[in-house]
Amino acid sequence: MVANIYFGSDETSRQELTNRLSPYSGEVVSKAAICNADDAKKALLIAKEAAKEARKSTIAQRCSWLLDVAQKLRDTKEDMAKTITDEVAKPIAFSRIEVERCIETITLCAETMRTMHGETINTDAMPSGKKTTAFFLRESAGVVVAITPFNFPLNLVAHKLAPALVAGNAVVLKPTPEAPLTAYKFAKLFIESPYAIKDALSVVYGDAEVGGALVSSDIPRVISFTGSVPVGEIIAKSAGIKKVSLELGGNAATYIDESADLDLAASRCVIGAFVNSGQVCISLQRIYVNAKIYDAFAQKMADETKKLVVGSPYDDETFMGPLIDDEACKRAMSWVESAIEEGATAMLPPRVDGRLFYPCVMANVRDDMAIVCEEVFAPIVSLVRVESFDDALPRINNSPYGLQFSIFTNDLSLTKRAIYELDAGGVVINDMPTLRFDIQPYGGVKLSGVGREGPRFAIEEMSEIKSVVIC
């Protein structure tokens, strides 16, 4: 199946196509149209007209639209999971989980929209006011541009499309070039639904040229982007006066207290560090361990890591598949080699087989090492010895990122302190910072971005409040 460009409900065949090669096998797994700035501008013009009809549609129709897509996704779950695995080499078991999460995300958006409402306002509450009938209501924002990454090529698309469409907007989606067929199949479910609003969804493929044309245009009211900090900075500077939601990088950390359940902490930290081969914005990268239990915890981490199955993403038992490309492997190895040169110790020998980068636990890491200062986006986790939570807290917070942090402890006072003193968009107690439920608000502080995802919160980002007074 060839993934071509969509302009609204029309599928346009093109002679110029680009091949997507499997990160695991190197074989061609999909094809996509090569788009340019003119294509992006055309899609925006179509969306501008479609937004007028979308705004007039009923909530009932839009909710039925999403629920229809969710059901069709259930019916094609295995095919969609395999497509994800083909294009980004995510282990098939986790691709199936991603499809399930996508279904939940879409369903949650429909359920949330049914109960979103305005409120009446007491305009005579102040001496300067007077008694009127006043209220505010929510309206669609207009046109939303959604730009998505490779690591969750289905569910992160859903986190933008579903709230935007159910709120009554038109959307132009620029999916990751690494998974064009995943986006194609997903968009097709929306476009071919009997409840669809004509031309309310368009898909264009491409990189910087296409993205730049979408972001800098005067047509969109909302830009929703998930990706790197450098690209996020470009978007923030070029977007102009728009609502901009940026979900950017992270450098997730946790603290292991002497009171913690070490077996639980080690087992969860291994998952948090190595799931999706560490290619997650909230992948656990830094573990600050109380000196009293450092050696015991480090050994448990190494022992748990050895149990992970690394190999073919098509094997149901595989926990980790390959990294996305050769450059990612080279970059990951450079992090490890740099840390070793600076005095760190690899508790498991660094190992690379093609694009399979085996999980790496680094011990004796210091805060001044590059491996803990930057986002590695690879299956590498660093252990740092600290004397106490007071010692760990400023080190955890001393990062340009602030997406999600966590703490493992059975000390209630430390739990309360962590909630209020960790400088991040999300704090997790007694689990990995990689833990995320799609119903929650999700986003960060500092360089980790602005705005929040999650059904209710994204709908709010993608709608406008109108105040009404009847005298």
What does the secondary structure layout of this molecule look like, with pairings?
Layout: E1 5-7, E2 10-12, E3 17-21, E4 28-33, H1 37-56, H2 59-75, H3 77-88, H4 92-115, E5 119-120, E6 133-140, E7 143-147, H5 155-166, E8 170-174, H6 180-191, E9 201-203, H7 208-216, E10 222-226, H8 229-238, E11 243-247, E12 252-256, H9 262-274, E13 284-290, H10 294-306, H11 326-341, E14 345-346, E15 352-353, E16 356-357, E17 360-363, H12 370-373, E18 380-386, H13 389-397, E19 401-402, E20 404-408, H14 412-421, E21 426-429, E22 445-446, E23 449-450, H15 455-461, E24 463-470
Parallel strand pairs: 7-8, 7-10, 8-9, 10-11, 12-13, 12-20, 13-18, 17-18, 20-21
Antiparallel strand pairs: 1-2, 3-4, 5-6, 6-24, 11-23, 14-17, 15-16, 19-22
CATH class of the largest domain: Alpha Beta
Please work out how many helical segments DSSP would assign. Answer: 15
Spatial sequence of strands, sheet with the most strands:
14-17-18-13-12-20-21
The N- and C-terminal alpha carbons lie at a distance of 60 Å
| Class per helix and strand makeup | alpha/beta
Query: How does the overall form come out from the CA principal axes?
Result: globular
Average pLDDT reading: 95
CATH superfamily of the largest domain: Aldehyde Dehydrogenase, Chain A, domain 1
Total separate domains = 2
> Which stretches of 5+ consecutive residues score pLDDT under 50?
1-13
What percent of the residues sit in helical stretches (DSSP H or I)? 25-40%
Largest sheet: 7 strands, mixed
How many strands in all? Answer: 24
**Estimated share of beta-strand residues:** 15-25%
Radius of gyration: 23 Å
CATH architecture of the largest domain: 3-Layer(aba) Sandwich
CATH-derived topology of the largest domain: Aldehyde Dehydrogenase, Chain A, domain 1
